[in-house]
Specification:
The protein has helices spanning about 5-30, 30-40, 50-65, 75-95, 115-135, 150-170, 170-180. The chain has about 190 residues and is mostly helical. It is globular, with a radius of gyration of 17 Å.
Length: about 190
């Protein structure tokens, strides 16, 4: 096992933990906004709306922690990949059907679902897929290294990369507004 694989694994565990923790926290702080978004997306039957809106942030919080449990890391990456794939399919469906709604992925938001959200999710799919591969290269479940087994330079680079990638992911709505040229004008007002 190389320091590069260990450093990559650490960075990707950080990304998954930060992104899912922020997502779970944002949804917990604005549960009505997320529930409204799920309803507006028309991807879940109305009878399942409440349970789905309640379960998603719980699952995200569990995955944010599970990625740090050595016996669960590999599976946490797999489940994270699957959850993000489901989110991506939902967003693609919303775009294809022309539904005007926000994502509310990280809490209340008025930025409409757009291509930037698909790009963000593609980055997260790549991160979780690579995390899975890195955890397998580390020997699979139960053998994922902790930060203490890495050299300080590897830890620094891993954490710096994880912070940068996480910040970009968490800033999707802001970046979408800036680069769309709407300056917020494209936001829904209802």
């Amino acid at each position: 096992m190389t320091d590069v694989t260990d450093s990559l694994n650490l960075a990707l565990r950080c990304v998954v933990a930060v992104v899912f923790a922020a997502s779970a926290l944002g949804k917990a702080r604005a549960p009505g906004a997320f529930r409204t978004t799920v309803r507006e997306m028309r991807i879940v039957p109305l009878r399942a709306l409440g349970p789905v809106a309640a379960a998603v942030p719980v699952l995200e919080a569990v995955l944010a922690v599970a990625v740090w449990v050595p016996a669960l890391t590999t599976w946490a990456f797999v489940l994270s990949f699957g959850l993000i794939a489901v989110f991506t399919a939902a967003l693609a469906s919303v775009l294809r059907r022309g539904i005007d709604t926000s994502c509310s992925c990280f809490g209340a938001s008025r930025t409409r679902v757009g291509p930037a959200h698909l790009v963000r999710n593609a980055v997260l799919l790549a991160a979780t897929g690579t995390g899975f591969a890195a955890s397998l290269a580390a020997g699979g479940p139960g053998s994922v290294p902790v930060a203490g087994s890495l050299d300080p330079a590897g830890v620094f680079v891993s954490l710096f990369g994880a912070v940068c990638l996480s910040a970009l992911v968490l800033s999707t709505d802001l970046l979408a507004d800036v680069f769309s040229g709407t300056g917020g004008a494209g936001r829904r007002t209802s």
